[in-house]
C-alpha cells in the first residue's frame, strides 16, 4: 500500500439518473493528496467540484471507483459507518458558515465534541476556547453568531471543524461569501493549519490561488484537466 | 457559567430553539394541556358518574321487580323471601301527594310508606341528620328536595293527599339521602318517608300496595328477573292475593341512567375534540420546528451527529413540551381539587 498519499481516488465516477437519462457529475477521476498538502479544486460551475469534496467527506458516495483515506476505504461504507468515520477524520467548512443560531460561538465549537464524545466532557470548554484563540476570535466566545461579521463567523466555523482534531479539512468555497481582504485572512489561516500538519482540500473560485496552496486540481465536465491553462 | 454547562451543548440548542419561538412553544404547551385536561375530565367524569353513582345506587338494593296487589304485609314478604331466587322482599306503598312550598304554592311529593323503618331491605336509604325512625305524624325528607320546599328539621310541612285533598300538618324530623331517586331539585319533585300510622292519619286507607323484591343473583338479567317475578306472582295468587300487574324497573339501572349516558356522551365528544385539536396543534408545531431546521439538521449530521442523536433531540423537545403541558394541567388540577371537593357535596 502506498503510504505516501493520504487521499487516493481511483476511477471515481458519479452519475445521476434524471429525466434526460444518465448525467455524469464525475468521470473516472483519479487523484492523490499527500499528508499536509493544501489542495485547491477549481473549475467552472457544474464541473463537479462539490461532488468530489462530498465524496472525500463521506457525505456522498461514488457510483463506481475507490476512495482510500489512509488505510481505510470509504466508498463501500454505509451511512452509519461513514458518519462515525467522518467524526474522527474530517472537519467540514461551508461557504455560508452554518453556525447554529441559538448557540453561542463557544457552544457551536463544543457541539461536535458533544455529538462525538471523543474529547472528554471536562476538556471540551478549554479546548474550544483554545481553538477560538487559534483562529483569533476568543473575545467573541459568548456571543451569538448573528452578532459576528462574516469573517469572524467563518473563523468560528473553522474552529468548529477542528473540534475533534481531524487530520482532514474539507472546505467548499470558504471565501465565496467574504470580501477580498477577509478572504486573504481566511486563506492565511488555512495555510497555517496545513503547515501545522492538517491536510486540506478546498473548492475555490479565488484568483491567484497558487500563492496559498501547494497544488491545484482543475475540473471540467467531471474530469480532471491536467496541464497548463488553469484559469481559462 | 459552570452551572449552565451541566446541560450538554446539544440540549442547550433544544432549549434555545424553544425559547426563540416562545409564542409557538407556549401555544403547543397550552394545546397539550387542554388535550390532557379534556381527556382527564372525561375519564374523571366516567369514573365518578358511572362507578360512584352506580355503586351508590346498587348499594340501596334497588327492587328487581315490583308486584302490585291490594294489601301486601310482613307475612307475605316473609313467605316470598323463602322462595328460591328471591333475596329480599318488602311491602311498600308510594302515594303521590302535594306539599306546600309557599303561600298557595304546592309541589309534587312522593310519599314512601314504610312498614318497618328498622328493617329496610329493598330500595334502602340512609338518615343524614335528625331522628330515625319517624314517629306518627312525622316525616323524613330527601335532602335534594330541601331547596324546593324551603323547610328544615323541626319545621311543619303541609301535605295534601289525593283521597280527601285536605291540608294535613306533619313535622319534619329527619333528612335522608336516597340514591335511588333522581335529584328532586332537578326534577322539581320532593320525596317524603312516613309510617303506616301517619298514612292513615292523612286520610288514606291503611294498606301497602307494592311488594318489592330483589333477586338473589344476576340482578341485571331481565329474563331471570321476569321468571322469578312470575313465580312470586303465582305463589301470591295461590295465597289469595290479587296481583294487578308486575313491573320490572330498568334492570340495575339508575333512575337517571339515560340522562347520565347523554351527559357522558357529551363529555366524551368534548374530550375527543380537545385531544384531536391539541394533537393537530402539537403536530403542526413540531413540523414547523422541523421544516425550519432542515438545514441545521444537515449541518449537525455533517459535524458528526448520528441520525439517532438528532431524532433524540427532536423527540426530546416534544417530550419537553408534553411534560410542560402535563405539569400545567397538574397545577390546574390541584387548584380544581379544592373547588370540586366543595361542589361534590351538592350531589
Ligand atoms: N442530486 C443531483 N441530481 C442530479 N444532478 C446533480 C445532483 N447533484 C449534482 N448534480 C449535478 O452534478 C454536476 C456537478 O455538481 P457540483 O455541485 O459538483 O458542481 P460544482 O462544480 O460544485 O458547481 P458550483 O461551482 O456551481 O458549486 C452539476 O451539473 C449538478 O447539476
Ligand atoms: Mg459547488
TrEMBL record, chain A:
ABC transporter domain mapped to chain residues:
7-232
CDD domains, sorted = ABC_MJ0796_LolCDE_FtsE (cd03255)
Which terms are listed as keywords in the entry? ATP-binding, Nucleotide-binding, Transport
Annotated Gene Ontology cellular component terms: membrane protein complex; plasma membrane
From the UniProt record, which GO molecular function terms apply? ATP binding; ATP hydrolysis activity; transmembrane transporter activity
Is this entry keyworded Transport?
yes
Short name of any one Pfam family annotated for the protein: ABC_tran
**Could you identify this protein by its name?**
ABC transporter domain-containing protein
Lineage of the source organism? Archaea, Methanobacteriati, Methanobacteriota, Stenosarchaea group, Methanomicrobia
Amino acid at each position: 500500500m502506498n503510504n505516501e498519499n493520504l487521499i487516493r481516488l481511483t476511477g471515481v465516477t458519479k452519475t445521476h439518473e434524471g429525466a434526460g437519462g444518465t448525467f455524469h457529475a464525475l468521470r473516472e477521476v483519479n487523484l492523490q493528496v499527500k499528508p499536509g498538502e493544501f489542495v485547491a479544486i477549481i473549475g467552472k460551475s457544474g464541473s463537479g467540484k462539490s461532488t468530489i469534496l462530498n465524496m472525500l467527506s463521506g457525505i456522498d458516495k461514488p457510483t463506481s471507483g475507490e476512495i482510500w483515506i489512509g488505510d481505510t476505504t470509504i466508498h463501500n461504507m454505509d451511512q452509519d459507518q461513514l458518519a462515525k468515520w467522518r467524526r474522527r477524520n474530517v472537519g467540514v467548512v461551508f461557504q455560508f458558515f452554518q453556525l447554529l443560531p441559538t448557540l453561542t460561538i463557544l457552544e457551536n465549537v463544543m457541539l461536535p465534541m458533544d455529538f462525538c464524545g471523543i474529547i472528554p466532557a471536562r476538556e471540551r470548554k478549554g479546548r474550544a476556547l483554545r481553538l477560538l484563540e487559534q483562529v483569533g476570535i476568543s473575545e467573541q466566545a459568548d456571543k451569538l453568531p448573528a452578532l459576528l461579521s462574516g469573517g469572524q463567523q467563518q473563523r468560528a466555523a473553522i474552529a468548529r471543524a477542528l473540534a475533534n482534531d481531524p487530520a482532514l479539512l474539507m472546505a467548499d468555497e470558504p471565501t465565496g461569501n467574504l470580501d477580498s481582504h477577509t478572504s486573504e485572512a481566511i486563506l492565511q489561516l488555512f495555510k497555517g493549519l496545513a503547515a501545522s500538519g492538517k491536510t486540506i482540500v478546498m473548492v475555490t473560485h479565488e484568483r491567484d490561488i497558487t500563492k496559498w496552496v501547494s497544488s491545484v486540481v482543475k475540473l471540467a465536465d467531471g474530469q480532471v484537466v491536467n496541464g497548463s491553462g488553469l484559469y481559462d | 457559567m459552570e452551572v449552565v454547562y451541566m446541560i450538554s451543548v446539544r440540549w442547550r440548542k433544544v432549549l434555545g430553539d424553544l425559547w426563540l419561538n416562545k409564542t409557538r412553544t407556549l401555544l403547543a404547551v397550552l394545546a397539550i394541556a387542554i388535550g390532557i385536561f379534556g381527556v382527564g375530565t372525561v375519564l374523571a367524569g366516567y369514573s365518578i358518574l358511572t362507578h360512584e353513582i352506580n355503586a351508590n345506587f346498587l348499594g340501596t338494593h334497588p327492587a328487581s321487580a315490583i308486584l302490585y296487589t291490594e294489601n301486601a304485609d310482613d307475612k307475605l314478604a316473609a313467605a316470598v323471601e323463602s322462595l328460591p331466587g328471591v333475596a329480599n322482599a318488602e311491602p311498600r306503598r308510594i302515594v303521590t301527594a302535594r306539599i306546600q312550598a309557599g303561600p298557595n304554592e304546592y309541589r309534587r311529593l312522593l310519599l314512601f310508606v314504610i312498614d318497618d323503618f328498622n328493617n329496610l331491605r329493598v330500595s334502602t336509604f340512609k338518615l343524614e341528620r335528625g331522628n330515625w325512625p319517624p314517629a306518627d305524624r312525622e316525616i323524613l325528607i330527601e335532602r335534594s328536595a330541601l331547596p324546593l320546599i324551603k323547610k328544615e328539621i323541626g319545621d311543619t310541612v303541609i301535605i295534601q293527599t289525593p283521597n280527601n285533598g285536605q291540608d294535613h300538618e306533619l313535622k319534619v324530623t329527619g333528612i335522608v339521602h336516597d340514591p335511588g331517586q333522581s335529584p328532586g331539585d332537578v326534577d322539581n319533585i320532593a320525596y317524603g318517608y312516613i309510617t303506616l300510622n301517619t298514612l292513615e292519619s292523612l286520610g288514606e286507607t291503611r294498606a301497602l300496595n307494592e311488594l318489592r323484591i330483589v333477586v338473589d343473583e344476576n340482578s341485571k338479567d331481565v329474563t331471570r328477573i321476569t321468571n322469578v317475578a312470575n313465580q312470586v306472582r303465582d305463589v301470591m295468587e295461590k295465597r289469595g292475593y290479587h296481583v294487578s300487574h308486575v313491573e320490572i324497573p330498568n334492570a340495575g339501572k339508575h333512575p337517571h341512567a339515560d340522562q347520565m349516558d347523554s351527559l357522558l356522551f357529551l363529555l366524551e365528544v368534548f374530550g375527543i375534540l380537545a385531544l384531536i385539536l391539541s394533537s393537530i396543534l402539537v403536530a403542526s408545531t413540531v413540523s414547523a420546528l422541523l421544516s425550519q431546521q432542515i438545514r441545521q439538521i444537515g449541518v449537525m449530521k455533517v459535524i458528526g451527529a448520528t441520525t439517532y442523536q438528532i431524532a433524540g433531540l427532536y423527540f426530546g423537545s416534544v417530550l419537553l413540551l408534553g411534560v410542560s403541558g402535563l405539569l400545567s394541567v397538574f397545577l390546574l388540577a390541584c387548584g380544581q381539587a379544592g373547588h370540586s371537593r366543595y361542589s361534590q357535596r351538592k350531589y
